[in-house]
Amino acid sequence: MVHARDLFDLTGKVAIITGGGRGLGREIALGYAEMGADVVLCSRRVENCEQVAEEVRALGRKALPLACNVAEPENVRRVVDESLRTFGHIDILVNNSGASWGTPAVDMPLDAWHKVMETNVTGTFLMSQAVGRHMIERGQGGRIVNIASVAGLVGSPPEVLDAVGYSASKGAIISLTRDLAVKWARYNILVNAIAPGFFPTKMSRVILERNGDTILRGTPLGRFGEEGELKGVAIFLASPASSYVTGHVLTVDGGSTVM
Ligand SMILES: NC(=O)c1ccc[n+]([C@@H]2O[C@H](COP(=O)([O-])OP(=O)(O)OC[C@H]3O[C@@H](n4cnc5c(N)ncnc54)[C@H](O)[C@@H]3O)[C@@H](O)[C@H]2O)c1
Ligand SMILES: O=C(O)C(=O)C[C@H](O)[C@H](O)CO
Questions:
Q1: Which domain holds residue 95?
Q2: Where do the Ketoreductase domain residues begin and end (predicted)?
């Protein structure tokens, strides 16, 4: 029986957080480090990851910053190999990297559609495949947390979010989450997703400036997500507290998807 005090403890765990150099990924990485995990931070711009790595080290944990395009199989393999060389094992993967392209559906360029799909869906698949392979071989289970979006659960009016490829990609991430949860349950690899509503970050800045009032009218709590409000949920899905939770999509959206 795990004592309540230890339910959220991540001591001795190693977590890879894609897109961990800024925004929500940075918040999740720091949250995991605060709970005792060592972290691998990867994104295309390694400088951002290096900065967050310094913050992690200041918390007394180890950090490995790496450059990686999650849509490139070779890059993904290198991240997993270097993580294993440095730490010996991987317990948690957070597929947080994401890209978007805002334009009316009828104008969506095909190359932008492919880019969004490659980063969000192919990237999540490649990372899950490479880390899942290690977790299965190791035989000690694991956790995969996919960062989806409310845009993958419900349709969005264009005056809220006009990003058809992004919404489709997040729906695919939710299906992938549920399918891998069932397929890998026999290895005790728990696969869950978080569906955030709107949080101010680099990705959402323009949308919030342009559509913020409309978004807030559709949000029962009447505000955007704030710093720190995703961290606890991400810790929950990586910790002993959620050991009987898999295939779940946890909305963190101020109630926007229930009204
Ligand atoms: N901010 C929001 O309101 C919101 C809402 C719902 C979901 N999300 C999701 O949260 C996640 C984090 O987004 P954010 O809001 O922090 O925005 P952000 O733009 O600050 O972060 C996105 C991260 O993904 C990384 N990235 C992009 N393409 C990549 C690639 N090909 N390979 C590796 N890394 C890549 C970027 O370097 C960056 O670190 C995304 O998946 C996003 O879709 C955000
Ligand atoms: O997923 C969400 O709810 C977002 O906030 C997405 C981004 O802000 C949007 O797609 C940017 O173009």
A1: 4-253
A2: 13-183
